[in-house]
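Moderator note: this is an archived Q&A kept for reference. The question asked for a predicted structure of one protein chain; the sequence and the answer are reproduced below.
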Amino acid sequence: MSALARTDLLGGIASLLYPPICTICSASVGVREYLCADCDAKLSRIVPPFCAKCSEPFDGAITTAFSCANCAHLVLHFDAAVSAYRSRGIARHVILNFKYGKQIHLRHLVAKWLIAAFDDPRLRDRRFDAIVPVPLHPARQRERGFNQAALLAERLGPHLGVSVRPVLRRVRFTTTQTAFDRSERIQNLRDAFRLRKKADVRNWRVLLIDDVLTTGSTLSECARVLKENGARAVYAATAARA
């Protein structure tokens, strides 16, 4: 039995012994729910107007499609990156506990947010040939114990009826991105990803998956590699956007 299967089994047993509670405030919730109604209402949903390329929200009354100033001055290789929620407050807390706190059961909640991104017309009726999770460097994955993007992709695949194909690998361990601006992040990630040996993505319509979009530099570099190897289109979806 895999580690994830054991985790789910133990979680199922625990739910029989203890009533489910909100992961934030410990209020009672329904079976297979992770947030109470009050905490769920505090999530910040991304609504128009937002950048058609990277989903950066804007205040105002813009009614036509537009690109933000950052996207207008950079070459981003994905066709569009769509996020359902802002990575702040409760959403940020949950994702950090999922990624760094080893609370792997929270993947179910984060995947629910990811699925919500498909209400967006940029993704709603679009067909994909493969779901590709953004890979971690092997050293980082050993340290963390899992790849959060891969776990989310596994939840999304059956929902969309699309196969998960981990055709990318991360070949360079990059320094932390936090001190860099957007253009510097893109340069820092250059050649950090490659296509796996014998992988063939020619004419694929790819859906890239990650947990959070910050500047879009990681997704853009993955999309560049996919398109240079023949992918026809690359869209990205994340559960949240910084």
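Archived answer notes: Residues 3-17 form the longest helix (15 residues).
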